[in-house]
Structures are given as C-alpha cells and as structure tokens.
Amino acid sequence: MDVRRFKKQPILGIVRGVERSIVEPLVETVISAGLHTMEITMNTPNACDSIKEAVRVSGGRLCVGAGTVLTTDQLKRSLDSGATFIVMPALVEDVLGYCVDNKIPAFPGAFTPQEIYTAWQRGATMVKVFPAKFLGPEYFKEIKGPFADVELLACGGVTPDNMKEYFANGASAVSFGASVFKKELLARKDFESIGQHIKRYIQALSLVPAALNRPA
Question: What share of the chain is helix, strand, coil (3-state, %, to 5)?
Fold first, then answer.
C-alpha cells in the first residue's frame, strides 16, 4: 500500500462475506466506481482465495488489504495471498508489531483515548476508531485536542452526508462496509447498485475541502 496515495483518496471499502465466485465482477465494479482501496475481511469464508483473486483481477488498479486480522497466522496467510495492508478491529500487539517491523501499513482498531494513544504509540499507520457512529464526529475533535498528531480512520456509521463532518473534526480517513456492500445486493449480484453507492461516497469526498483530508 502506498500510504501517500491512500491519503489522496482517504476512503476504505470493507468487504465482508463475499463469495469467491463474484470477486471478479465486484472488483471491476469497485474500480469503475472510482474507489482505490478495499479490504476483504479474514472472517469471510475462503478469505485468502478471495484476496488472491482480487489482487489478480485488479492488476495494480486497486489496493487490496486484509481486514479483521486477529492472529499472526491470519496475518501471514493474508500477506501470502497478496494483501498489502492490514486492518484489525482492536489492537493486536503481535500483529501490529510484525507490520511495523516489516513496514506493512496497519490500521488497528481502538475506541477510548487510552486505546487510541496506545495503538498510535505502537506504530499504527492510522488508528481505526471503531465503532465511530456511537460518539460521532465531535468525538474526533475531542481526541485530536490532546492527540493532535494521531491519524484517525473513522469506521462505522460514516455516510456521504456526514463524511465532511468527520474530516472537519479531525479524521484523516473514513471507511464504509455493509451500507454499500449489502448482503442482499451481493446475493443477487446487483453490482450496478453497489457501484452507485460507492460513487456517492467518491462524490461526497470531492466536496470536502482539500485542506481537510489531503497532504500538502
């Protein structure tokens, strides 16, 4: 993962439970909609096969990572499958340590000020504040008060309508998952609707002032 590239389009798509058989059209949909970064969670059946397929299909057009990584075994299997960044729902010390030592971008999850600070101190690329929706954008402003240098990824409850608020209050990036990659849409292979949902996020990002979410 090129972190600088991610910061230029700081949106992460989270895919959970996708069947291997539809990875190719899903990846093509994601790319066509304009999204640059996507993770496939490791609690997806045959997740590593799906990651391999996503990497193959994208051919470098999409940055593919692994999410819900909770063990070093999952970490190593996901990396062997071609994942270029790692996302965790919490701070998993040995997983993050391996990523830091091997210069692999890593996004551990945290919620409280202590958890957020600890994850950042351990070397997180960004700290995934999860679930963000319960305290909302203003929580990010409060966290950035004492922790101005900590990079935060908002996960859970970010919509095209409230995205700007998250960036304005200190988020460095945002993510979306089940609100776009809906089970029913995946089940009926409604890639057109998925693509339209993604485009709404991309459009919303274009309306966020560059100073809020892009490096100088």
Answer: 45, 15, 40
Please give the residue range of the domain that contains residue 14: 3-213
CATH number for position 49:
3.20.20.70
Angle subtended at Cα 12 by Cα 207 and Cα 146, rounded to the nearest 5 degrees: 80
> For residues 11 and 25, what is the distance between their CA atoms, to the nearest angstrom?
20
Distances (CA, A) of 40 to 18, 32, 67: 8, 18, 6
What is the distance between the alpha carbons of residues 67 and 141, in angstroms, rounded to a whole number? 26
Phi, psi of 168 (to 5 degrees): -65, -25
Answer whether 5's CB lies under 8 Å from 199's CB: no
d(CA 182, CA 97): 33
pLDDT < 50 stretches in the chain = 215-216
pLDDT digits (tens, 9 = 90+) for 129-178: 999 999 999 999 999 999 999 999 999 999 999 999 999 999 999 999 99
Distance CA 153, CA 171 (A): 6
DSSP classification of residue 132: G
For residue 143, which of 106, 172, 107 has the smallest C-alpha distance?
A: 172
Q: Report the domain count for the chain.
A: 1
Question: What is the reported pTM?
Answer: 0.95
Residue with token string 């600088």: 4
